[in-house]
Specification:
Cytochrome C Oxidase, Chain A; mainly alpha; single chain
Length: 479
């Protein structure tokens, strides 16, 4: 603390935190609301898979509407609001400059959540577009597109006015994501809805977008969060700068091809499917080098990781990034795909990436960010432990159950001698496990939201023993 440079740096970060306090709370609050709503819709969807008459007397709660609402609320409500909050905060901190144009964030957030409210309402009213990941009616698309553009513009302006000459690896991923997704979203809206392409080209465009939502929007921001928080809490540099360069450019090069493997067996040119398979297999390159960077950086710091409320979630998410991406590449192989396609294995894989990696990293990012925005500790360490164990065990149960059940489901579906209804009955125990996993996730989400609300209200208690949550863990280098 006697180092004047360190003191100035800490003062600058504190000023940045104060300037982003309002917008950070705004996005986190909306994220929490959508998280609980999306979890409720997920449970209803899971129950209706096992017992179709559930809520069948209500037109709004048909399976198609609830499932579409669940997907959009979780992906665009919870995940995107959390990405806006943590991603923009990381960008501001790395730029080390006073935050400008804060009004853009409020306008973008208002447009975004208003558009989402109208879009989910439209789904329940029967205005579903029937295009996965794009189910919301087209009349909300302008609101969402403007919000994306404003968010991306704010990120670029923050980078333009940065006071640090060095460009950190986290900034590469953030800037790329801020550019990629507004472009992806506007292009797909034009090519599918406003000036639609003909025939199978719509399916090609659809899966180009749907796969890149995860790979070129959610993944880069979450990888940036890991690259920022992991070394900062542990107090040591990332393992290899050069590996991070390879990881970034190989992700940018290969991921946008990978979505075509979802159309294996479809009436599209074989070369497109083959290119998608090659892109998916080549994704082993960014995944492996990123895994080496993250896991070697964390090696030998197990106690520090466990003592940190944020690193428990961050490291869990980083590990699942490696695992889910590896399974994703395997699913692109024709011999593997013919078993897993159109089964619960694919559903388990989707949850593995979007929840086991993305959502768990976002939980860790919020646990790291909010104490610094509010300058107070988390009110309950017990709720944090409950949140972690419920969500980690819940997502493991869901992924394992759906992967095993889906694999055997695929084997049976490829056997023409087995009646289809027998296969449906076979999957019921695995769907029961999915519902149980959903209940565990609900308990974890309630614990998380209660802790957030408690913290925002300011009714918190300081720990009388051990380091505070705002204090560095041992060997953290006084961060």
């Amino acid at each position: 603390m006697n180092n004047p440079t360190m003191t100035l740096s800490q003062m600058t970060l504190s000023q940045i935190d104060r300037s982003l306090k309002g917008s950070g709370i705004f996005f986190v609050s909306w994220a929490c609301i959508w998280l609980l709503v999306g979890t409720l819709f997920a449970l209803i969807t899971s129950i209706k898979l096992q017992y179709p008459p559930f809520l069948s007397g209500y037109e709004w709660f048909t399976f198609g509407r609830v499932r579409a609402a669940h997907l959009n609320v979780v992906a665009y409500g919870w995940v995107n609001n959390a990405l806006f909050a943590v991603g923009l905060w990381v960008m501001a901190r790395l730029c080390k400059s006073p935050v400008r144009h804060k009004g853009m964030l409020y306008v973008a957030g208002s447009f975004w959540n208003l558009g989402l409210l109208l879009g989910v309402g439209g789904i329940f009213m029967g205005h579903n577009s029937a295009v996965e990941w794009l189910e919301m009616p087209t009349y909300v698309s302008p609101l969402l597109a403007v919000a994306y553009v404003l968010i991306g513009a704010w990120g670029v302006l923050a980078f333009w006015h940065r006071e640090s000459d060095h460009v950190y690896v986290s900034q590469w991923y953030l800037l790329a994501a801020f550019f990629w997704f507004p472009w992806l979203y506007t292009i797909v809206q034009m090519l599918i809805f406003f000036t639609p392409m003909q025939g199978v080209m719509q399916s090609i465009t659809h899966w180009w977008f749907a796969h890149n939502v995860l790979g070129l929007w959610m993944t880069p921001i979450c990888v940036a969060i890991v690259y920022y928080i992991l070394p900062k809490v542990l107090g040591k540099p990332i393992h290899s700068y050069y590996l991070s360069v390879v990881g970034f450019w190989s992700l940018a090069l290969f991921y946008n091809w990978a979505g075509m493997h979802h159309l294996i067996g479809g009436p599209i040119p074989v070369w497109m499917i083959s290119a998608g398979i090659v892109g998916s297999i080549m994704m082993f390159v960014p995944v492996i080098v990123t895994a080496i960077n993250h896991h070697i950086t964390a090696m030998g710091s197990l106690r520090d990781i466990w003592n940190s409320p944020s690193l428990r979630f961050i490291v869990f998410g980083a590990m699942n990034y490696t695992l889910s991406s590896a399974f994703g590449s395997l699913m692109a192989l024709r011999s593997f795909n013919k078993i897993t396609h159109f089964t619960h294995f694919t559903v388990g894989h989707a949850h593995h990436g979007a929840y086991g990696f993305v959502t768990m990293v976002l939980f860790g990012g919020i646990y790291f960010m909010l104490p610094r925005l509010l300058n107070r500790e988390w009110p309950s360490a017990g709720l944090i432990r409950m949140h972690f164990w419920c969500c980690s065990s819940g997502i493991i149960l869901m992924v394992v159950a759906l992967s095993i059940g889906g694999w055997f489901q695929g084997l049976k579906m490829n056997n023409p001698n087995i009646p289809f209804l027998d296969i449906v009955r076979f999957t019921l125990p695995y769907l029961h496990a999915r519902t149980l996993a959903g209940l565990l996730l609900l308990c974890g989400h309630v614990a998380f939201v209660v802790n957030v609300v408690w913290m925002l209200r300011g009714s918190y208690v300081r720990s009388e023993t051990g380091p505070t949550l705002l204090s560095p863990v041992p060997n953290s280098g006084g961060l």
